[in-house]
Structure to design on (357 residues):
C-alpha cells in the first residue's frame, strides 16, 4: 500500500509538471491611486480634496492564461475585475471588466463572454490620455451633461473576433440581446480597423446598440457611434487627432421626428513628448459639439489637460495632472466622466502613483 501511494504521488507530480509545460496562468494587475482636488464639486460651490482611485488608469486585477493545443492553436481565458484603491472595494461586479474563454490561432482570436469591444480596443490607442479617469472625454463625455455622448466600452453576452494582416488590425464584437421579443432587441455590434506603419497610425470604427421595441410605436432606441482618427510619431514627439460622431434615435417618437434624436460630435487632439526616456509630458484638448437641442442649451464643453509622468521603473510611475473645463450658455460641466460639476467652469488636479504587477 505504501509503495502504491508513493507511485501515485509520483505520477501526480509528473502529470502536474506536464500540464504546467503545456499551459500557463498569470496573475496581473494595475494599482493606481492619488490625491485629487476639484473645484465646484458641490451645489454650494465648494471644492473637494480626496484620495482617489485611477488617476491615469482604472485600477484592476485579473487572471489570464493559455493552453497550447498543438498545430498553432491555443485556448485562452481572462478574468478581470476593477478595484477601488481609496476604499479597497470592488469596482462593479467581481469580474465586470472581463470574463471570457476562447481560441487563438493563425487566423486570429475568438472569445465568448464579457469583454471590451473591438471599438474600445482600437480607440484607446488614439487617446493621448489613454482613457484616463482623470481626465479624458475620449471614452465618454463629462458626467454633468444629459447624455455622455460616448461609446460602449464593453458588451455582455459577446462573441468577439480579432485578427491582423500585415499592417492592418481588425475586429468585430457582437453582443446578443437575449430578449424573447426578437434577436435585434438589445443587440450590440462593434467593428473596428486600424493601419499602422512607421510613424503613422490610422483608425476607423463603427458601433450600434439597440434598445427594446416599444409597443406604442413598434420602434426601439438605437445608438450609433463612429470614430476616425490618427497618430503621427516623429522621434520623441507623438501627435494625436481623432473625432467621434454620436447619434441616438428615439423609439418613442415617430420616425420623421428628428427633434427626438440626440446628437453630438466629440473631437480631441494632443501631443506627447519624451525629453528623456523616463519622462513623458502630455497635453490634450477635448471638445464636444452638442447638436439638436433647444436654443441656448447646447453646452459644447471644452477641456484642457496637461500631465507630467515620471517612470521610476518599468512597473512604477509617478504623475501629476491638471485640467480645466468650461461650457457655454451657463450649462454645467465637470472634468470627470464619473463625477458631476456644479458650475459652467471647473478646474482640478491630481498627483498619484501607478504600479503594475
Amino acid at each position: 500500500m505504501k509503495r502504491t501511494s508513493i507511485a501515485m504521488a509520483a505520477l501526480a507530480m509528473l502529470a502536474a509538471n506536464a500540464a504546467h509545460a503545456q499551459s500557463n496562468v498569470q496573475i496581473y494587475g494595475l494599482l493606481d491611486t492619488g490625491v485629487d482636488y476639484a473645484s465646484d464639486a458641490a451645489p454650494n460651490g465648494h471644492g473637494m480634496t480626496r484620495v482617489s482611485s485611477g488617476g491615469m488608469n482604472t485600477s484592476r486585477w485579473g487572471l489570464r492564461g493559455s493552453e497550447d493545443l498543438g498545430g498553432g492553436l491555443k485556448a485562452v481565458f481572462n478574468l478581470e475585475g476593477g478595484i477601488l484603491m481609496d476604499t479597497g472595494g470592488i469596482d462593479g461586479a467581481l469580474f465586470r471588466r472581463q470574463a471570457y474563454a476562447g481560441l487563438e490561432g493563425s487566423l486570429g482570436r475568438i472569445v465568448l463572454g464579457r469583454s471590451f469591444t473591438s471599438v474600445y480596443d482600437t480607440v484607446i490607442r488614439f487617446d493621448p490620455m489613454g482613457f484616463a479617469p482623470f481626465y479624458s472625454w475620449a471614452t465618454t463625455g463629462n458626467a454633468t451633461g444629459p447624455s455622455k455622448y460616448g461609446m460602449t466600452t464593453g458588451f455582455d453576452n459577446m462573441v468577439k473576433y480579432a485578427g491582423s494582416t500585415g499592417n492592418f488590425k481588425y475586429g468585430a464584437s457582437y453582443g446578443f440581446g437575449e430578449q424573447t421579443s426578437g434577436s435585434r432587441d438589445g443587440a450590440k455590434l462593434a467593428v473596428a480597423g486600424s493601419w499602422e506603419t512607421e510613424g503613422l497610425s490610422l483608425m476607423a470604427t463603427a458601433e450600434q446598440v439597440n434598445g427594446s421595441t416599444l409597443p406604442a410605436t413598434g420602434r426601439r432606441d438605437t445608438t450609433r457611434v463612429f470614430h476616425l482618427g490618427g497618430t503621427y510619431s516623429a522621434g520623441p514627439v507623438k501627435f494625436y487627432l481623432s473625432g467621434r460622431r454620436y447619434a441616438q434615435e428615439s423609439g418613442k417618437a415617430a420616425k420623421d421626428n428628428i427633434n427626438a434624436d440626440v446628437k453630438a460630435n466629440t473631437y480631441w487632439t494632443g501631443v506627447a513628448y519624451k525629453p528623456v526616456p523616463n519622462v513623458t509630458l502630455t497635453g490634450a484638448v477635448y471638445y464636444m459639439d452638442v447638436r439638436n437641442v433647444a436654443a441656448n442649451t447646447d453646452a459644447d464643453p471644452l477641456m484642457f489637460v496637461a500631465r507630467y509622468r515620471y517612470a521610476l521603473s518599468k512597473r512604477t510611475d509617478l504623475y501629476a495632472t491638471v485640467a480645466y473645463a468650461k461650457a457655454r450658455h451657463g450649462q454645467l460641466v465637470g472634468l470627470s466622466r464619473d463625477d458631476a460639476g456644479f458650475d459652467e467652469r471647473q478646474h482640478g488636479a491630481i498627483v498619484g502613483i501607478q504600479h503594475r504587477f
Observations:
- The domain at 25-356 is CATH 2.40.160.10 (Porin).
